[in-house]
Amino acid sequence: MVTYTPSQQAAIDEISRPLQIIAGAGSGKTQVISQRISRILAEPGVVPGNIVAFTFTEKAAAELAERIHAIVHAEHGEILGMAEMYIGTMHGFCLDLLQTYVPDAFKFGVLTEITQRLLIDRNSRESGLTSCPLLAGGTLSRWKDSRLYARALSILQEDDVDQDAVPDGVNDSLESYLQMISRRNYFDYTTMVATAVAFLESDEGDPDRPTQAVLRHVREQVKYVVVDEYQDVNPLQERLVAALVRFGANLCVVGDDDQTIYQWRGS
């Protein structure tokens, strides 16, 4: 039996209020998260599908899932529906959500960073690349600037951008890119999250059936949200988390203030 420190035990036992856990390397945070989820599953009426646990990488998700299953099996035996608990990245969750509740999304493929750049370069005019202006004059170049362009596209969609500081023509290029990947039935990592967030932030009175299906799922099923490796640097991801708890789900975030690798971006 694992023995916990008072702080660890307090984190495990707090399941009714929003919770922020500050945990340094080697402090047993994965064990605490896993034990807390097992504690949640002991609550009357709670099923595995009520829990969403976000991790930074798929590798971290596999490690967390293995730990959770081991603890749950030891404490509760076999619980039906463990596969319904989401443990993984935010991008993976958004793709699953869209493909489950938005029929049109099922036909969309996913662009990796490499395939995204290849698509941009091979369709440089249609993607908006060669019409995107530079501050020093001229426009971006095919094959040379596609990485810079892809990063700019992500920032424009993910961050709180001062539109007055965006050069004329840049948003037009973004719109060209978004229209191109939509026509070709693709998501990139950013549009995957942005599309899901748009559904999740919709008004409950929206008559659109997929929107209602998404909101009903969150309202009725998502009761506990856990965010591991928390970095408060991405406004789009912050909106995703906020939308998932908009109907009263409990939120727990876990971070290490000595490993905020994005401090240079304001984290």
Structure description:
The chain is an alpha/beta fold and 267 residues long. It has ten helices and seven strands. Strand 2 (51-54), helix 3 (58-76) and strand 3 form a beta-alpha-beta unit. The chain is elongated, with a radius of gyration of 21 Å.
Separation of the first and last Cα atoms: 37 Å
Report the count of strand segments.
7
Structural class estimated from helices and strands: alpha/beta
Average pLDDT, all residues: 93
Counting copies of identical and different chains, the oligomeric state is single chain
How large, in whole angstroms, is the Cα Rg? 21 Å
As a percent range, the share of helical residues equals 40-55%
Bin the strand percentage: 5-15%
Order of helices and strands: HEHEHEHEHHHEHHEHE
Residue windows where pLDDT falls under 50 for at least 5 positions: none
**Shape verdict:** elongated
Largest sheet: 5 strands, parallel
- Strand order, main sheet: write it out: 1-7-6-2-3
Annotation field: number of helices: 10
At a glance:
The protein is an alpha/beta fold. The chain has helices at 6-13, 29-41, 58-76, 90-101, 113-122, 146-158, 170-183, 189-200, 209-221, 235-244, and strands at 19-22, 51-54, 86-88, 109-110, 186-187, 224-227, 250-255.
List keywords for this structure.
267 residues, alpha/beta, two-stranded parallel ribbon
Task: Write the SSE topology.
Elements: H1 6-13, E1 19-22, H2 29-41, E2 51-54, H3 58-76, E3 86-88, H4 90-101, E4 109-110, H5 113-122, H6 146-158, H7 170-183, E5 186-187, H8 189-200, H9 209-221, E6 224-227, H10 235-244, E7 250-255
Parallel strand pairs: 1-7, 2-3, 2-6, 4-5, 6-7
Helix pairs in contact: 1-2, 2-3, 4-8, 8-10
